[in-house]
Design brief:
By secondary structure, the chain is mainly beta. It has six helices and 20 strands. 13% of the residues lie in helices and 43% in strands. The strands form four sheets. Strands 1, 4, 14, 15, 16, 17, 18, 19 and 20 form a nine-stranded antiparallel beta sheet that branches. Strands 2-3-5-12-7-10 form a six-stranded antiparallel beta sheet, with no helix packed on it. The model has no long low-confidence stretch (mean pLDDT 96). The active site is at residue 191.
C-alpha cells in the first residue's frame, strides 16, 4: 500500500499580497506581501517538497519522474498546480494562453486554464470575469483608449463561490479575496492592465498587450455551470467541474465518511476544520491548511472529523 504524500511548499511574494494566509491558515509566511502559496506544485518556479514518509525531502517533480507508479498518469510533467492566493489588493487584469499558443510562444510551457474556489471574501468584494468587446478590433480599441469600465465585466463574490476560468478569459481577483486555485501547471500570464501602479523599485510592471489580445476569446463565451452534488454517509461531495484539464470537487465531512480507492492520484487540500485520515490501518491528523496527495494503490480510506476539502485530479 502507498502512503499519503504530505507536502511542504513555496510562498511567493506579490505586490498585491498580504498577511491573510497566516491569519486564515496559520502559515509561517516569509513576506509582508505574501500573495501565493503554491501548495501542490512541481512547476520549476516553485516546487513542493515531500514532508515525511519514504520519499521525505524529494521534490514533487522528482517524485513524479522517478516513481510514475504512484500516479497512473500519461502526462510527461505533473500537470496540475494548486495554489492559495491572498488578494489583499487588486490583481492585475490578465489573460492566459491555451496549450497550443503557450507551446509555440513560451518555450513549450503548458497553457493555463484555471478555476477558483472563494475561501474568504470581504463585503463588497468583486472579481473581473470576462469582457464586453464583441470583436477583436473593439477589444483593441477599448484597451488602447483605457476604457476599462466599459470593457471589463465585474462580478460580486462571496465565500463558497466557484468560478471556472478557461484560457482566453480576461480576469482578475479583486481586493479582499482569498481563493484556492486549481490550474494547469503553468506560470504564463499576460497582463492587460495594472492600474498604473509601481513596484517597490518605482517601476510600472510590464504589460503584454499583443500576446494578450492574441489569446483573448472574443466575444467572451461563458460556460454554463451546474454542480453535481452527491450525499454519502456523513458527507457531501460537490463536483464543480470535470473536463480534459481537471476535475475539482468539494468534500464536506461531518463524522466518519468512507471513500473507495482512487484509480488515479488525488490532490487534497483541507480548507477548513480538522480531523484525521485513516488508511491501511494508519491514521494521519488533518488540519486546516494541510495539502497532500493520495497516490494510487493506497486502498480504501476514511475521513473522520469536521472537514472541508477541495479535491482535484486529472
Amino acid at each position: 500500500m502507498n502512503e499519503p504524500i504530505f507536502l511542504q511548499s513555496v510562498f511567493q511574494e506579490r505586490i498585491w499580497g498580504g498577511q491573510k494566509l497566516k491569519q486564515l491558515f496559520g502559515y509561517d509566511i516569509p513576506y509582508e506581501h505574501t500573495g501565493e502559496y503554491w501548495a501542490v506544485s512541481a512547476h520549476p518556479n516553485g516546487q513542493s517538497i515531500v514532508k515525511s514518509g519514504p520519499y521525505q525531502g524529494m521534490l514533487l517533480g522528482e517524485l513524479w519522474n522517478s516513481h510514475p507508479e504512484l500516479f497512473n498518469s500519461s502526462s510527461t510533467v505533473f500537470p496540475l498546480l494548486t495554489k492559495l492566493l491572498d488578494a489583499s489588493d487588486d490583481l492585475s487584469v490578465q489573460v492566459h494562453p491555451n496549450d497550443a499558443y503557450a507551446g509555440a510562444h513560451e518555450n513549450g510551457e503548458l497553457g493555463k486554464t484555471e478555476c477558483w474556489y472563494i475561501v474568504a471574501a470581504e463585503p463588497g468584494a468583486c472579481i473581473i470575469y470576462g469582457h464586453e468587446a464583441k470583436t477583436k478590433h473593439e477589444l483593441e480599441s477599448m484597451i488602447a483608449a483605457g476604457n476599462w469600465d466599459s470593457l471589463l465585466t465585474k462580478v460580486p463574490v462571496k465565500a463558497g463561490d466557484f468560478f471556472y476560468v478557461p484560457s482566453g478569459t480576461i480576469h482578475a481577483l479583486g481586493k479582499g479575496i482569498v481563493v484556492l486555485e486549481t490550474q494547469q501547471s503553468s506560470d504564463t500570464t499576460y497582463r492587460v492592465y495594472d492600474y498604473d501602479r509601481k513596484d517597490k523599485d518605482g517601476n510600472t510592471r510590464e504589460l503584454h498587450l499583443k500576446k494578450a489580445i492574441d489569446v483573448t476569446s472574443v466575444p467572451q463565451a461563458y460556460q454554463a455551470v451546474s454542480y453535481d452534488t452527491k450525499e454519502i454517509e456523513n458527507g457531501v461531495i460537490t463536483t464543480f467541474v470535470s473536463n480534459s484539464f481537471f476535475t475539482v470537487e468539494k468534500w464536506n465531512v461531518d463524522g466518519k465518511a468512507s471513500f473507495p480507492e482512487a484509480k488515479q492520484y488525488t490532490i487534497c487540500s483541507v480548507i477548513d476544520g480538522n480531523g484525521e485520515l485513516s488508511i491501511d490501518g494508519q491514521s494521519y491528523p488533518l488540519a486546516k491548511g494541510d495539502h497532500f496527495i493520495l497516490p494510487i494503490s493506497s486502498g480504501d480510506f476514511q475521513l473522520n472529523g469536521k472537514l472541508e476539502l477541495i479535491i482535484s485530479h486529472e
